[in-house]
Design the sequence.
């Protein structure tokens, strides 16, 4: 008897056929199809919390939480377009945040830590890109990726400035408050971690879930999918279901605008892709927050 058969026999399941999808086994049994994977974290408390909060869009385990593996019913994903799936995902995400919202007294040490760590990173990025610009402009010949970066370097500096400005406004706003809201974050939102069948939708892979500000899930989703999806409509849909507070918007603006540090390799083609991705991210992030930021400024 194989290890898989031993595991399944404990739950009176008898495998007929086994397929592999990355690290997950898809197993056809005499009682239906199931997935089996090695447990990388203990999600049982998360599932209990979701159940207590009446959030139903997750796949419960059929096996004991003490087991070193997870067995769930296999859900065949729909063939819906990525755009339509994203709309459904945003709706389910808003339900998750609505049902797990709690309000607590502000921990100013935590606020200060967020502020100082992001400010330090932004100041480093500002120095890094100015230093990189000086190096490139002093070369006799620029490579294609270097030329592309220099042509768009103003956008990088504008993103850093905007991120820093929004961070300062957020920090000053938090100083006025005594309470803030937290939600259960899925913390790894992507189309890959969302299943949509005929009668129900499911968020899967809760290994990174934790408590935190609601903005982080949408921020993760943007970073994971910005190249393939138009996010303005998704953001607007989310806001109709779970509207960010003024301070949450400021932090969201700051974090989504913040560029990352690029590191060139010896491959010019790969380097060009790296710069192109950064420019695209900055442009789409700017488009996403520009309208909201304008409305915020008008209310200040």
Sequence:
């Amino acid at each position: 008897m194989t290890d898989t058969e031993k595991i399944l026999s404990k739950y009176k399941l008898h495998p007929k056929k086994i397929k592999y999808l990355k690290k997950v086994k898809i197993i056809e049994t005499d009682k239906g199809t199931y997935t089996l994977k090695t447990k990388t974290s203990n999600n049982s408390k998360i599932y209990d919390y979701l159940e207590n909060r009446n959030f139903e869009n997750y796949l419960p385990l059929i096996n004991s939480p003490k087991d070193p593996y997870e067995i769930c019913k296999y859900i065949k994903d729909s063939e819906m377009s990525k755009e339509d799936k994203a709309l459904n995902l945003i709706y389910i995400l808003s339900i998750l945040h609505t049902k797990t919202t709690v309000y607590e007294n502000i921990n100013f040490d935590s606020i200060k830590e967020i502020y100082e760590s992001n400010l330090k990173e932004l100041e480093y990025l500002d120095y890094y890109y100015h230093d990189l610009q000086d190096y490139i402009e002093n070369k006799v010949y620029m490579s294609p990726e270097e030329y592309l970066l220099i042509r768009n370097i103003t956008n990088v500096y504008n993103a850093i400035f905007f991120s820093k400005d929004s961070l300062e406004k957020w920090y000053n706003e938090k100083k006025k408050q005594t309470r803030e809201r937290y939600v259960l974050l899925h913390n790894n939102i992507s189309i890959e971690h969302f299943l949509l069948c005929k009668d129900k939708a499911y968020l899967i892979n809760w290994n990174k879930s934790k408590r935190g500000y609601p903005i982080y899930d949408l921020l993760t989703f943007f970073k994971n999918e910005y190249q393939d999806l138009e996010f303005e409509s998704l953001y607007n849909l989310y806001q109709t279901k779970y509207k960010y507070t003024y301070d949450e918007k400021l932090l969201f603006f700051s974090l989504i605008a913040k560029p990352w540090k690029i590191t060139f390799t010896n491959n010019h083609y790969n380097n060009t892709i790296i710069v192109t991705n950064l420019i695209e991210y900055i442009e789409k992030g700017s488009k996403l927050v520009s309208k909201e930021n304008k409305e915020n400024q008008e209310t200040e």
The chain has a mean pLDDT of 91. The first strand starts at residue 15 and ends at 21.
